[in-house]
Amino acid sequence: MPQEAFCLKVAKQHCEETIAVVNKLGLTDKRLQIQKGNEDALYIPLQRQPNEEEMALLKAKTPEVQLASCIFLEKKRQEKTLVESLQGLLPPCLPPSIPRALDIVGDIAIVEIPPELEPYKATVGEAILKTHKNVRVALAKAGKVSGTYRLRDFEFIAGEHRTSTVYKENGCSYYVDVAKAYFSPRLSHERERVASFVKESEIVVDLFAGVGPFAILIAKTSKNARVFAVDINPEAVAMLKKNASLNRVENRVFPIVGDARKIVDQKLVGVADRVIMNLPETACNFVDVACKAVKLTGGIIHFYGFVRGPDTLEDMRSCFSEAVSKTGRKVESFLEAKTVRETAPYECQAVLDARIV
Fold this sequence. Notes:
Elements: E1 3-11, H1 15-24, E2 35-36, E3 41-45, H2 52-61, E4 66-72, H3 82-85, E5 103-105, E6 108-111, H4 121-131, E7 137-141, E8 154-159, E9 164-169, E10 172-177, H5 188-197, E11 203-206, H6 213-221, E12 226-231, H7 234-246, E13 253-257, H8 260-267, E14 274-277, H9 287-293, E15 299-308, H10 313-325, E16 331-344, E17 347-356
Parallel strand pairs: 6-7, 11-12, 11-14, 12-13, 14-15
Antiparallel strand pairs: 1-3, 1-4, 2-3, 5-6, 7-8, 9-10, 15-17, 16-17
Helix pairs in contact: 5-6, 8-9
């Protein structure tokens, strides 16, 4: 039933980080759905009006956030939460260990099982299938992301025995095999944000394209843009080609398999208005490659990295600027510097949008 509530009005590109702060402050009214405005804004429902200190914290993170009031729809509640589905199936001491978050890619759910729940992982998997009606496969993480191709091992804990699916995001569809190519559904808003900046007829170089979520969305939203999508993993590029065809942008997305450094040297020197560097663990090693791909007249680099305590976002900016300077170019300005998501205790993924000349 619709009801009026206090809310925060925030630009769509800043919604994710604002929600994170609102959740930490315990202000989110989770019974209500986030609403889209007529303009490029979203309305986040609140349990109560924030006090001055809380508003100061929110404005420090997103200066343009506004307090408002809005009519919201109630969320459709699932029959049971995962915790409720597992009630009575685990020893009384274990419910606090039940995973509170999981990644859903198409009809595949990916969960991290803590050591104390290992003997009960099949039970957890079956509960996931019951809780999420569209999920057909439950996978447990069986190792960290590692290797040149950024892959992770998985263990089947319930459902069908497969790792491939079709995932839908921002109006696009993607063939994804989570065991053969790196993919994270947690960057959905970030991919939409970057795509919104691309102008008509821009040339974009996506240095670590994976199955193509940045490249394909850009090609769909900027009709005359061309995207050179590079990845060293041949399996990922094979899926990228299928995805370009699936989304009817094969005439504007050009998949290239190979090492980004070699590919830029051979084919992409000075062609890019914009370069995307979504390889947060080692992207700093490729700043010179990105600078080489940017047009001599200048362009934008979207650089992703990890910020781990005690380092700060300012340290990341300094490191990036220094790496750019070593190429003989410079950072004219930072258009954006912000955290994208928390990835571990005292660690977050961050992005720098930098204009290079």
